[in-house]
Amino acid sequence: MLRIGLGYDFHALESGKTLILGGIVLPFDKGEKGHSDGDALLHAVTDALLGAAGLSDIGELFPPSDDQWKGADSGTLLQKAWKLITDKGWILENIDCVIAIEKPKILPYRQQICSNIAKLLSCGKDQIFIKAKTGEKLGEIGREEAVCVWAVCLLSKN
Ligand code: MG
Questions:
Q1: Span from the CA of 158 to the centroid of ligand 1 (angstroms)
Q2: Between the CA of residue 25 and those of 110, 119, 122, 126, 158, what are the distances in Å?
Q3: For the chain, how long is the longest CA-to-CA vector?
Q4: Which one of 24, 25, 135, 136 has the minimum C-beta count within 10 Å?
Q5: Ligand 1 center to residue 39 CA distance, Å?
Q6: What are φ and ψ of residue 85, in 5° steps?
Q7: CA gap 158, 156 in Å, rounded
Q8: Could you tell me the distance, in angstroms and rounded to a whole number, from the CA of residue 7 to the centre of ligand 1?
Q9: How far, rounded to the nearest angstrom, does the alpha carbon of residue 117 sit from its chain's CA centroid?
Q10: What angle do CA 70, 15, 145 make, to 5 degrees?
C-alpha cells in the first residue's frame, strides 16, 4: 500500500527572531514568528507525514493553546508524530519540499537540512529533498515578510 501526504505552512518573519528551517539555524536578520520555534519546514513535513498516514495534523496533536508546546522544538514534535506513524507500520519512501523565501539563499544549506531531517526520521539522506524559490520581490514572500513551505511525502506499508 502506498499513500501520499501533503503539508503546508506559512510563517511571518520578524526582526530579531531566529530563522530555523529543517532544524538548522540560518543566518538572517529575521526569523519566524510562531508559538513554537516556528520551523515552517518541519511543520509542513510533519503535516505531510501525518496526512499520508491519515492520523491527525500538527495543530490537533500540538495545539497552540496548550502551553506545553510554547517555544517547542519542532524536531521533537516531528519525532513524536513520526513515532505514531511508524507504530502503525508505515515506512517512509521519500519527502520532497519547496520553500518559498526571498532571503537568505537556501541552496548552500541543502545538504545540512536534508541530513538533519533524515536524522530526525532515522532514514537515508537520499530520501529527503528540498528546494527553494524566491517571490521575485512580489507579495509577502518577495518583501521578506514571510516564509512558506509545501511538503509532499510517500509512505508505504506491506
Ligand atoms: Mg507552523
A1: 32
A2: 12, 16, 21, 21, 37
A3: 47
A4: 136
A5: 6
A6: -75, -45
A7: 7
A8: 10
A9: 9
A10: 95
